[in-house]
Automatic annotation (TrEMBL):
Name of the featured protein: Radical SAM family uncharacterized protein
Organism annotation: Actinopolymorpha pittospori
NCBIfam families (alphabetical): rSAM_fuse_unch
Molecular function terms from GO: catalytic activity; iron-sulfur cluster binding
Domain of life: Bacteria
Length: 652
């Protein structure tokens, strides 16, 4: 069946909406393929506005991996702003892809990548605009399979009613495996309709299909058990782990945005996973083990990506980039290669140690020394032991001292508020640290214009972390502590004016907490919020706490649970958690022990440099830590003179 572009109908309406360029498509390195000759068609969605969604690495990687196969077609779609939604509804224009402006409802599969749970209401808008029934059980063979991925998919239960399927972990291989299943099923004439297709996906063991699992509850509201209701589907669904990153050097051709976006640079992921063991960090826990890209692949990716896109800024990405075993060689090699060119390099690493400053010095050879960011996360030494962030005050002062001595004028420090066992003193300790940072900066640089910006995020307990059992702090307590901190900084005559304080109020974190650790009953709340106008909940100007509170009260009125039950309640060891049937590889007993260690303020080392401490991931997933050094060198780049190449090799 021919699928027409919606653009001729859309174009005359664009002058009426904000930033119309975001809906136009045609970016450098975007792809439009023939519809009819493609056997499997994916619409890939990032459920936020184009300016946030376009730079998303996960979507860009899958877009390219899928489109490289001649039998697969993949296009992108983003959340449309409320003004555009209005225009689309008034003109009966369905949710469309930006590549060929095809209706999302015509694709075989809609893959949605969730980095944050606050994007859930945007999923409902997109489904509704696409003409896809919100509830999976109401969909027919005419509708795409709606599949979630990304970090939030490690507990997709709050949106289980709206999803046909979810995948956990790295997407590169599994999207191809899913495509194969769809291709085969279609080639057979789509036997058994979407139910059979979903069954085949579920039976593969790597795709979670919520409708094949029943949840039973205890009278007090806790979960009694989650069990498959179809023979042939596994009791537990496991995450996917890509073991050889060098074999998957994506994105090869980064998309170049047409409209302004939050990042305008080419990012190369230098390793995946993190074993530092910060107890609050879901990303670190669920992406284990560490798998490094080799220095040579990194060098090739940087060069090829710059050539393919024209970007002049390159970010070396990962959860803790300074931890790459050959980061010194990578930084020096790239800095040498691009010395004197327009290419600027950055390492958005936040590790607190002086080596990080050395790396930043190296990478900033072509640029300005404006600001450096470090993340102690906890204000007091005690707090940092609880969260397993092994940074002493001495480490921090030594690090900032090196930074200021090397000409950096501004240091940014990241902290969290609302952490388990936190007291007012732990948060007020942030002001003391900031004062010491300024004092050190003035002393080593001999200047008065030293700045320190303190940025504070609200802590949200996340599934598959040791804090998954913790009580979330109430927003009232978080706001009260932050107010005390602000007062302490303002009242400081000697240093207060040199310290900038940035934070958000605590209410959005409570809703993020509800959505992070919620179960299937929370789906009713999300739907009620959406029906009441909830959109773009990750944006403070669109977020309404009252709307969520009202929806919780209404949608959960018949249940023995409420907003507090999901958020500020501590869970017991034996309680069945909504995500217990979803396997991130971490051993539940190890997570519990780590939670107890947190309460006892006991730290755990990084298994990259110490023996394995049995978190369970490697044996359960059949994986291993993969770190260098490889002893390789960056390859000289084509187009550089022979003499310069030899100089580069001699130096590296
Ligand atoms: S199983 Fe051992 S080596 Fe593997 S990530 Fe866990 S602690 Fe590290």
């Amino acid at each position: 069946m021919a699928v027409e572009s919606l653009f001729p109908r859309l174009e005359p309406l664009l002058p009426a909406v904000q930033k119309p360029i975001q809906y136009v498509g045609g970016e450098l390195n975007s792809t439009v393929k023939d519809w009819d000759s493609s056997e499997v068609r994916w619409a890939l969605m990032y459920p936020d506005a184009y300016e946030v969604g376009l730079p998303n690495q996960g979507v860009q990687i899958l877009y390219e991996v899928l489109n490289e196969r001649d039998w697969i077609l993949a296009e992108r779609t983003y959340a449309v702003w409320p003004d555009m939604e209005k225009v689309m509804r008034a003109n009966a224009i369905p949710q469309f892809t930006v590549d060929a402006h095809r209706p999302v409802g015509a694709f075989d599969i809609l893959g949605v990548s969730f980095s944050t749970e606050l994007g859930y209401t945007n999923l409902l808008t997109a489904l509704d605009l696409a003409g896809i029934p919100l509830e999976a059980r109401e969909r027919t063979d005419e509708h795409p399979i709606v599949l979630a991925g990304g970090h939030s998919a490690f507990n997709p239960e709050p949106i289980a009613d709206f999803l046909d399927a979810a995948v956990l972990g790295d997407g590169e291989e599994v999207v191809l495996a899913i495509s194969e299943v769809i291709r085969e099923w279609k080639a057979e004439g789509s036997p058994g309709g979407r139910d059979e297709l979903l069954f085949r996906l579920a039976a593969s063991g790597g795709v979670y299909v919520p409708k094949f699992y029943d949840v039973e509850y205890l009278p007090d509201g806790r979960i009694k058990r989650v069990a498959p209701n179809r023979s042939g589907v596994p009791w537990r669904v496991v995450k996917h782990t890509l073991m050889d990153l060098d074999q998957w050097p994506y994105p090869k051709k980064p998309l170049v945005p047409l409209a302004e976006t939050v990042h305008e640079r080419f990012s190369v992921e230098i390793f995946r996973g993190c074993t530092r063991g910060c107890r609050f960090c879901q990303a670190g826990m669920i992406t284990r083990p560490v798998r490094e890209r080799s220095i040579r692949t990194i060098g090739d990716m940087v060069q090829n990506g710059i050539e393919a896109s024209g970007f002049e800024e390159v970010g070396l990405l990962s959860l803790s980039s300074a931890d790459h075993s050959e980061i010194g060689e990578v930084a020096k090699g790239l800095a040498d290669r691009y010395d004197g060119s327009n290419v600027s390099l950055s390492l958005p690493s936040t590790r607190v140690d002086a080596f990080n400053v050395t790396l930043a010095n190296e990478l900033s050879r072509n640029g300005r020394r404006s600001g450096l960011t470090f993340a102690p996360e906890g204000g007091s030494e005690r707090m940092r032991k609880v969260i397993n962030k092994m940074v002493s005050e001495e480490d921090l002062i030594r690090t900032v001292s090196t930074a200021y001595a090397n000409g950096w004028r501004q240091v940014k420090l990241y902290f969290m508020c609302g952490l388990p066992t936190e007291s007012d003193e732990d948060v007020l300790a942030i002001a003391d640290l900031a004062r010491k940072v300024i004092a050190t900066g003035r002393e080593v640089s001999g200047r008065k214009d030293i700045r320190c910006t303190v940025s504070i995020g609200g802590f949200v307990p996340k599934p598959h972390t040791p804090f998954q059992w913790a009580a979330q702090e109430s927003w009232e307590n978080v706001d009260a502590r932050l107010a005390k901190l602000r007062a302490a900084i303002r009242e400081d005559r000697a240093y207060g004016k040199s310290i900038g304080l940035r934070y958000h109020d605590g209410q959005p974190s409570v809703i993020e907490g509800l959505l992070s650790r919620g179960d299937r009953r929370v789906g009713r709340v999300i739907r009620a919020v959406w029906a009441d106008g909830g959109r773009f909940d990750g944006w403070s100007e669109h977020f309404s706490y009252d709307r969520w509170v009202t929806a919780c009260a209404d949608a959960l009125a018949e249940e023995p649970v409420d907003l507090d039950w999901y958020t500020t309640r501590e869970r017991g060891e034996t309680e069945v958690l909504p995500w217990d049937h979803l396997d991130a590889g971490l051993d539940r007993e190890w997570l519990w022990e780590d939670w107890q260690d947190a309460l006892d303020e006991v730290e755990v080392e990084d298994c990259r440099w110490t023996p394995c401490f049995d978190c369970g991931v490697c044996p359960q997933m059949g994986t291993e830590i993969q770190v260098g050094p490889t002893g390789q060198q960056l390859l000289p780049i084509v187009g550089v003179s022979q003499t310069r190449q030899q100089e580069l090799i001699a130096q590296s």
